[in-house]
Amino acid sequence: MLRVAGCCFLVLLASGLDIAYSESKCEPVFEYFPYCLDFLTGYDNKPSKRCCDHIYKLNRLAKRGLGAQMICWCIEYMVRGTEPRIRADRISELPTKCQTHLSFPISEWKDCNAYSLLSFSLSFPHHKTFY
């Protein structure tokens, strides 16, 4: 019994460390993504310049830093179950309105494990490349 309790404690401790580690990796997403929420939830008709600037930064992180999967997970972690919900039509408008592309998925309920930089990129004709 004591051995089982000890094993359970170690599993819980390890999972807590994993969550804390993942949350610390999400700090850039937690800093940049909220600037787009007013547009994505429908409060604003267009994304702010700051939102677009931060989408460029997140694109760069998807390509050369955290990766699309981690950014996807961080966004889900941040917005899942919150109100108002992110609107699908606004997600699809964001790249065009910011004149860029998305190198990461935005959603509340995606299988983030299915995405990598190579498998996900919404491209639009008038996009800015930001490195």
Features:
6 helices; signal; Hydrophobic Seed Protein; single chain; globular; disordered N terminus; disordered C terminus; mainly alpha; Non-specific lipid-transfer protein 13-like; 131 residues; Plant_nsLTP
Characterization of this structure:
55% of the residues lie in helices and 0% in strands. The chain has 131 residues and is mainly alpha-helical. The chain has a domain at 26-114: Plant lipid-transfer and hydrophobic proteins (Hydrophobic Seed Protein, Orthogonal Bundle). Helix 4 (49-64) crosses helix 5 (68-79). The protein is globular and about 30 Å long. Mean pLDDT is 77; it is low at 1-21 and 117-131. GO terms for molecular function: lipid binding. Belongs to the plant LTP family. It comes from Populus alba (White poplar). It holds the Pfam family Tryp_alpha_amyl.
Task: Count the DSSP helices.
Answer: 6
Which oligomeric state applies? single chain
Helix-strand pattern: HHHHHH
The CATH architecture name of the domain at 26-114 reads Orthogonal Bundle
Write down the CATH class of the domain at 26-114.
Mainly Alpha
Task: Give me the CATH superfamily of the domain at 26-114.
Answer: Plant lipid-transfer and hydrophobic proteins
Portion of residues in beta strands equals: under 5%
Separation of termini? 56 Å
What percent of residues adopt helix (DSSP H or I)? 40-55%
Describe the secondary structure blueprint for this structure.
Layout: H1 2-25, H2 27-32, H3 37-40, H4 49-64, H5 68-79, H6 88-97
Quick structural gist:
By secondary structure, the protein is mainly alpha-helical. Helix content is 55%, strand content 0%.
